[in-house]
Design a protein that fits this description.
With 324 residues, this protein is an alpha+beta fold. It has four domains: 79 residues, Orthogonal Bundle (Arc Repressor Mutant, subunit A); 52 residues; 70 residues, Roll (SH3 type barrels), CATH 2.30.30; 74 residues, Alpha-Beta Plaits, CATH 3.30.70. The chain contains nine helices and 13 strands. It has a five-stranded antiparallel β-sheet. It comes from Leifsonia tongyongensis.
Length: 324
């Protein structure tokens, strides 16, 4: 005697219906018996579900159901031959797709992520890129993201952080001076597209932050680090001021204020002026303003001192002259 299947609860029915629609869409034609066997339900339950699908849909612009807003099936085939054929689909057919350009941009971003050392599961990223390519409205452009000059340094530094060994390198500071440093690497961090190493600098006898694109002649050593993360306190902010910093008066868009929060000295005045805020920032050198202003084009104006304005103005003029 055949075992009777237990009646479906409301939750089971909903899950069944949600799974049945894409199952039928993937098949041009399927018998009631085959579909019932696939879902483990009685054939009568399967027929009831198909009849329910045929009166389901999405209301159109009039907020009422019209003929084209409902699913439809080949009724004669269903009633006479116990075959299910969907003849009209709604909602799912109209789901938005990425354009070829959008898919290409996302794939480029995923290629960049797959190149970073921390993203070890590259099979998952590769699978997602393939799905994006298949699901786009057109074939995305073939492209490749070249590795950056810091990729090799990233690998070496991450290994040193994990192994607890010191690093040696030449460092170009913001004043354009080269110095040989020996550092206990404690943490590697990124801000936008830039990577930074934070560690104990044996030359300065203090915690320092180093930008990776200013590091050269990097060498891993077998010397164990002197200071471990538990031995020192890493500041909450990535950029720490020093007594030698220069103060620059600026006017910045209020919406961009959080982007430069690390550069604003503690206790600095913030004066609102419409949609802008007047305050000041600290920099190691006036030439360091170039990068800050370039990253917030149109949102930051240097107000003083005159030397700071001159440094930024000369840099901007030199860039504009290249287009003349």
């Amino acid at each position: 005697m055949a075992e009777r299947r237990r009646p479906m609860q409301a939750q089971d029915k909903l899950a069944f219906l949600l799974a049945l629609v894409p199952y039928l869409m993937d098949r041009d034609r399927v018998s009631v018996a085959e579909a019932a066997e696939h879902f483990g339900v009685e054939k009568s339950q399967l027929r009831e579900a198909v009849r329910l699908i045929a009166v389901s849909g999405v209301p159109g612009e009039t907020s009422s159901y019209q003929h084209g807003d409902l699913f439809d099936i080949a009724w004669d085939d269903f009633e006479e031959n116990d075959q299910i054929v969907l003849t009209h689909l709604v909602a799912i057919d109209d789901s938005p797709r990425f354009s070829a350009r959008e898919a290409a941009a996302l794939i480029a971003g995923l290629q960049y992520l797959s190149a970073l050392p921390e993203n070890a599961d590259r099979d998952v990223i590769g699978s997602l890129m393939a799905k994006l390519a298949r699901g786009a409205s057109a074939v995305p452009s073939q492209l490749a993201v070249a590795g950056s000059a810091t990729d090799e340094s990233l690998h070496l530094i991450r290994d040193a952080v994990a192994d607890g060994t010191q690093l040696e390198f030449d460092y170009l500071n913001s004043r354009g001076e080269h110095e040989r440093r020996r550092v206990d690497p404690l943490r590697i961090e990124s801000v936008d597209q830039d990577w930074y190493l934070r560690g104990w600098c044996h030359l300065r006898k203090a915690i320092r932050t180093f930008r990776l694109d200013r590091i050269s002649d990097l060498r891993a050593t077998d010397e164990p680090i002197t200071y471990r993360p538990a031995d020192v306190t890493l500041p909450e902010t990535l950029f720490e001021g020093s007594p030698d910093d220069l103060i620059v008066d600026i006017q910045v868009s209020a919406s961009a204020l959080p982007l430069i929060a690390d550069y604003i000295p503690e206790g600095a005045d913030l004066t609102e002026d419409g949609s802008f805020v007047r305050t000041n920032v600290r920099v190691a050198h006036y030439h360091g303003l170039k990068r800050l202003v370039a990253g917030l084009s149109g949102m930051v104006t240097v107000l003083g001192p005159p030397e700071a304005r001159a440094a930024v103005a000369e840099w901007a003029a030199a860039g504009a002259a290249r287009y003349a």
